[in-house]
Design goal:
about 250 residues; 12 helices; two-stranded antiparallel sheet; 2 domains
Length: about 250
């Protein structure tokens, strides 16, 4: 397949009167970065590759349940964003610990800058889907509380000790999930909250602000009306294979 794609791309470029991209490799001494950039450029530009890639991804998905570099297929047609899953399950590196410290310092500095202007800060981290619905990622991952990365908990604990107000949505969603007949608070094919999940987070934030006395309850009455839509989720579309998308029904929300 590789041998077919590369020569065919040369023919396409010559017929268009373009300089072959691979020729750039020989105009100076190539570096590792040059090779990676060329590989990515050829992959994106190759006409036959663009036609073949979705079918190859479809075959990988059907045979091996491989959803590609950005997606993970869970149970019951649920999809998860791969980097978010990796964050939960991979060991925390020294670089990660440094990043954790940078996050803490940035939030504390932001709180202090806001305070100088008379503005209060409520930090409300949004859990990724795998930390809330770990049982839909893998059966054995469905333990109490979900596989929340300890680094996240450490940051929240440090922020609390620094006097920063925290709304822990991990706990909010876990409590709500334990209610019999509760809806799904995340979309099965998507990395985002469902409408019910958004409503739950908004209600929790409003309740906390009222409890803190930072706002007063208003008297304006609002009305809502349903506006359902259907579409494929963002994680499913990250597979970049319409043939895979057609294996599933669009989500109604």
């Amino acid at each position: 397949m590789i041998a077919l794609v590369a020569p065919s791309q040369l023919v396409v470029e010559w017929r268009r009167g373009d300089s072959p991209q691979i020729a750039e490799l020989f105009r100076r001494r190539p570096t590792g970065a040059d090779l990676r950039n060329l590989e990515s450029s050829l992959e994106n530009a190759c006409r036959i590759g663009q036609l073949v890639r979705p079918w190859m991804q479809w075959a990988r998905f059907v045979i091996f349940e491989d959803a590609g570099d950005n997606a993970v297929l869970g149970r019951g047609g649920w999809f998860f964003y791969r980097p978010a899953v990796e964050y939960l399950v991979e060991p925390w590196s020294p670089e990660g610990e440094q990043a954790q410290g940078n996050v803490f310092d940035a939030i504390v500095s932001f709180r202090d800058d806001l305070a100088k202007r008379g503005i209060r800060l409520l930090v409300m981290p949004a859990p990724n889907k795998a930390s809330v619905y770990s049982e839909m990622l893998a059966r054995r991952a469905g333990g109490e509380g979900g596989p929340v990365n300890t680094a996240t908990r450490d940051v929240l604990a440090r922020l609390r000790r620094a006097g920063i107000e925290i709304l822990d949505l991990f706990e909010v969603y876990e409590r709500a999930k334990r209610t019999a007949g509760s809806p799904a608070y995340y979309l099965a094919q998507d990395s985002h909250w469902s409408p019910e999940g958004m409503e739950l987070a908004a209600e929790a934030a409003a309740k906390r602000l009222l409890e803190l006395g930072w706002v007063e309850k208003g008297s304006t009455k609002y009305q809502t009306r349903p506006a359902p839509v259907q579409r494929y989720g963002d994680v499913l579309r990250m597979i970049r294979a319409p043939q895979v998308e057609r294996l599933f029904e669009p989500q109604r929300m």
